[in-house]
Write a structure and sequence with these properties.
This protein is mainly alpha-helical. It has five helices and no strands.
Length: 190
């Protein structure tokens, strides 16, 4: 493939990613709007007790994002071995975040908070599950790239997929911080 065609494919990949970001922003914007209207339109709003594990999960996701960025830069600099190690670590940390979220959902269920318990619980579950579904897509991409890396099919010349996946992972981290704020501070405010 010539350089011009590779550049065009890279630009098209980033354009597709940015379009997907726009749809996610619209989805979570509509979700936020629905939550604001529902909370403001009734007097029966109940917040969700936010388990401390959510803060640990946030740290795990942030660390995964930092490690993925470092791995991306190492691949760009041609350090394949360090990329493989760091990308594997970022992927495992991503799985730990999802596992932590599952534990949070189970803890909330044990505390009597279900999706149909009250509107605050419903919004919490829908928002966090929607985030986890988007995160699962990014995690699958990370696993795919990890398999390609360990089979020596990924190198500095083929880094667009790594760049796209890393940027998507960072976006999900920022989105998670927003959701955490939405539920912890705004959703529980009296």
């Amino acid at each position: 493939m010539n350089v011009a065609a590779a550049g065009a494919r890279r630009r098209a990949s980033f354009t597709g990613l940015y379009a997907f970001f726009a749809t996610m922003i619209m989805f979570f914007g509509a979700f936020t709007s629905a939550m604001v209207v529902r909370r403001g339109a009734s007097k029966d709003w109940q917040g969700v007790p936010t388990p401390n594990l959510l803060w640990i999960n946030t740290g795990v996701l942030a660390l995964s994002s930092v490690v993925a960025e470092r791995a991306r830069r190492d691949l760009q600099n041609g350090n394949r071995r360090l990329f493989n190690t760091l990308w594997a670590a970022a992927t495992v940390l991503g799985a730990c975040f999802v596992a932590g979220q599952i534990i949070v959902w189970r803890d909330l269920q044990q505390a009597g908070v279900y999706i149909n318990s009250h509107s605050g619980g419903a919004f919490f579950y829908v928002g966090t599950v929607a985030h986890a579904a988007h995160l699962a897509g990014g995690w699958i991409a990370m696993v795919y790239l990890l398999v390609r890396a360990f089979s020596l099919q990924l190198g500095p010349g083929r880094r667009t997929a790594v760049d796209i996946t890393t940027l998507y992972w960072h976006f999900l981290g920022v989105l998670w911080l927003y959701l955490l704020w939405l539920f912890w501070f705004w959703g529980n405010w009296e």
